[in-house]
Amino acid sequence: MASIEAKTGPMTHSRLPQRGLSRHARLALVWLALAAVPFVVPNAYWISLANLALINLVLIASLNLLMGYGGQISLAHAGFFGLGAYASGILNVRYGVPPWAGLPAAAVVAGLGALLIGIPALRLRGHYLAMATLGWNAILVVFFTQLVGFTGGPNGLLGVEPFSIFGHALDTEAKAFPLAWAVAFFVMLAISNLLASRIGRSIRAVATNELGAQSLGIDSFRTKLAVFVLSAGMAGIAGSLYVHINQYASPETFGIAPSIMLLVMVAIGGAGTFYGPMLGALIYTAVPQILLDYEDAELMLFGLGLLVVLILFPRGLAGIPAALTGLVRRRRA
Amino acid sequence: MNTPRRTDDLLEVENLTCRFAGVTAVDDLSFRVKAGEIKAVIGPNGAGKSTLFNMIAGVTRPTDGTIKFDGARIDRLPTHARARRGIARTFQNLQIFREMSVLENVMVGRHLRGRTTTLSGLLHLPSVGAEERAMEAAAMALLERFGLAAKAHAPAGSLAFGQMKVLELARALASEPRLLLLDEPAAGLPHAEADKMAETIRDLNRDGMTVLLVEHNMRMVMSLSHDILVLNNGRRIAEGTAEDVRRHPEVLSAYLGEEAADA
Amino acid sequence: MQTTTALLQVLSSGIGTGAVYALVALGFNVVFKSTGAMNFAQGEWVVMGGMVTALLIGTFSSVGLAVVAAVVLVGVVGLLSERLTVQPLKRPDALVITLVTIGLSIVSRSLVMLVLGKKPVGYAGFSGNTALSFGGVSIQSQTLWIIAITLAFLVVMHAFFERTILGKALRAAAADREAAAIVGVNVGSTVLLSFGIAALAGALAGAIVTPLTLASYDQGAIFGFKGFSAAMLGGLGSLPGAVVGGLALGLLEAFGSFYISSDFKDAIAFAVLLLILFVRPSGLLGRADIVKV
Fold this sequence. Notes:
The complex is a heterotrimer of chains A (333), B (263) and C (293). Chain B is α/β, with parallel strands linked by helices. Chain B has 10 helices and 10 strands. Chain C is mainly α and 293 residues long. Chain C has a domain of 199 residues. The longest helix of chain C has 34 residues. At the A-C interface, α6, α7, α13 and α15 of A face α4, α9 and α11 of C.
C-alpha cells in the first residue's frame, strides 16, 4: 500500500523509492531528447526560441526552488536576471572581460543583490520578502535605465560579445544552443542534487513548518537566506547567457512585469515539482508566439487561461497526472 | 547513547520569570533536572506550564532569570541553537511536516547528524550519497522501533493522530538528544495508546534519556516520573516524588481539587 | 518668500497625490487583512473608476452622479471578481489568492481595453479646471476635492469598521479567522466584502484623480504599485497606516522630483521605502513581528 503512495507522489525529487530510473538517469534522458531540437525544427528562428526557452527554464526552475520548495516569494527574479545580464555584459563591453569570466561574476553579483535585500526582509514573518523584492526590482530597473554611462540606458547595452570556444565565436542561434542546453542541464542537475540532500530536506521542512524545523536544529533564517541567494545566483547565470547569446540587453526585459510573469509560470507549471518548470518555460516562451495572431484579445485569453489553471489545477499542469491517477485510484477503491 | 553519563544536573532553571503585558505567567521559578531522570511539570490550567516549556525550548524569551543546560547558559539562544546543544522536543499541537513522507520527517529530525553543506549538496559529492543512505537507514530503524515502518513512504499528514504523536517522538529522537522535552505526550490519546506512550517513555529513560514533560494525565505522571514539580499561578507549590506531591496539602487544594471537581 | 511659496505649492500637490495613494493603499490593506494576499488587481479598479466615470458623464450629465455610479459599478466588479475566482479555490492560501489576483488584473486590464478603448480619457474637475490662489500659492480646485472626498471616505470607513456589525466581523476575521468562525462570523463573506470595499476605494481614487492625470487602461500596474508601496510604508493591513503611508509617499515624490530630479522620482520613493523596510520593517505604523534569531 505504502509503496503505491510513494510512486504517485507529486515530488519527483524525493528520496522515495521510484519506479525504474534514478533521478540522474531520468534527467539525462530528458536532456538527450532535448539535444535533438536543433535537428528537427524547421529554421533558425525556432532554435532561437529553443535557446530562449532554455534560459527561461533556468529562471523558472531557480524561482521554483525558492517558491515551490522554499515557500518564499520573490518578485525581483527578473531584476536578478538583469543584474546578471548587466554585470556580465558591462564587464565585457566596458572592461573587455570575456563572457566565460562574466558568467560566474553574474551569479555572484545577482547573489549579492539578493543578500542585500534578503537579510532584512527574511527576518520578518509573513510575506515581507515578496513586498521588499517588489520594491527592490523597481529600484533595479531605475538603475538599469538611468545609469546610461554603464548600461546604455533605455537604448540598451550594445556590442556585447558572444561566448566563444577556442577562439570560435558562438555567434549564431545554432552554435549557441549547445551552450544554453548544457548550462540549463547543469542548473537542473544542481537543483536535483540539492533537493536530494539534507539541505534540500531542510529547505522543504522550513517551508512546511518553520517551528518544527527550528526545533530540530535547523536555522530557518539562514536556510531561507541561502535558498534565496542561490536562486538569485542562478537567475544571474541566466542573465549572462541571455546577454551574450542576444548580444544585447535593455531594461524592460528585467522589470516587475516579467518578475510577476515568472512567478505565474512557476505556479502554472507546478510549484514544488521538479519538471513543472519545463512546462512553465515552454508556455512562457510559446504563448506570446501563439497568441500573436489574436492581437488585442491576446491578454484576455492569457489571463483567462491563467485563472482557469489556477482554479482547476492548484498544483499546476505538472500536477494533473497525479490528480488524475488519484481520481482513478479513488474510483477503483 | 555516546554522551558521557553525568550524575549532576543537566538542566538548571534559576529565578525564571516571564511577564506578558502585566500578567506574570512564570514567577521567580527555580528547579533542576538531573541527568537520567524523568521529571514532570504539572499544575492546573494557566499555572504557567506551557510558558515554562516554551522558555526552555526557546520559543518564548524570559523576562528575567537564567536557564543552564549542561552548565552553560542557553536562555538567550534561538530554538535551533538549543537543539544543536542536544535539546529535542515534541509539541502539544503537532508540528509535523505534513506534506513530507513519514520517513522524510524522521530524516529531517536527523538533520543535526549530517554534514552536507549547500555546496556539497549542489555538487552531489560522494559523501552526500553515503550520508543520505546512512540517514535513511537510521531513520528507518527508528520507524521500525516505533512501529511506523509500514507507513514510511506515506505522507505524514495521512497518519492517524496517535501515529503522528509517535512520529513526532521518533523525529525528536533522531537527532540523538540529551534532553527530551515532551509537551503533553498523552493529550488526546485514548487510554491504551496513552499507556503505550508511557511505556515508550519509560523505555527511553531506561536507555539513559533525560526527560522533562508537561502533562495533564495524572495517572501517567504519577506512574512515570521520578520527580514532579507542581506549579500554580507561575510559582512552585510543591516538588518531589509522586508520593510527596500526592500528600502535599497545597497540591490537593490547587490541582487535585480541580481534578476531583472535574470528575 | 519665493521659496516658501514654492514649498507650499509642492506640499499641496504632494498631499493631493498622497490622498489618492492612501485610498489605493486602503483597498490593498483591506484585502491583505482578510486574505494575507497581495492584491494585484487593486490598480485596475483605479483605472476602471476613472474610465467608467468618463463614460457615464455623457449619460448622467452630472459629474457627481457619474462618479457615484462608476464607483458602485466597480464595487460590484470587485464582488463579482471574488465570487468568480477566489471563492471557487479549493485551498485559498495567500499565495494562490495572490496569483489569482494577477490573473484577475490581466483580465480586468484587457477587458477595460477591449470595452472602453485604448485612448486615454479625462473630464473636467468637479469645480471645472479652476485654481484657487492663497497668497501666491495656486492650488487646483480638484486637489481640494480630492482631499475632501478622501477625508470623507476615511471617516465613513472608520465608522464602518468601528460601529457596524459587518465591519467588526471583518476585523475579527482578519485578526483570527478560526476564532471568528467559531463565534459565528462567516469568513467567506468577509473575504467577499473586503474585495468589494477594495474595489470601491480604488474606483473612488480613480474617479477623483482622473481630472488631473487622465485615465488609460495601462496605468493600473503603476497605481497598484504605488498603493502597495504606500501600504507597506505605513504598515501592512493598518487603516491609519494606509493614510500615513499614502501621504508620506505622495510628499516624498513631490519633494523628490522638485528638489532632485523627476527622472529619479520613483527611485527616491522606493529607496526611502526600502530604507524604512530595513529600519522599521513593519512600516511606520505597523507592529513589529520580527523572528527571533
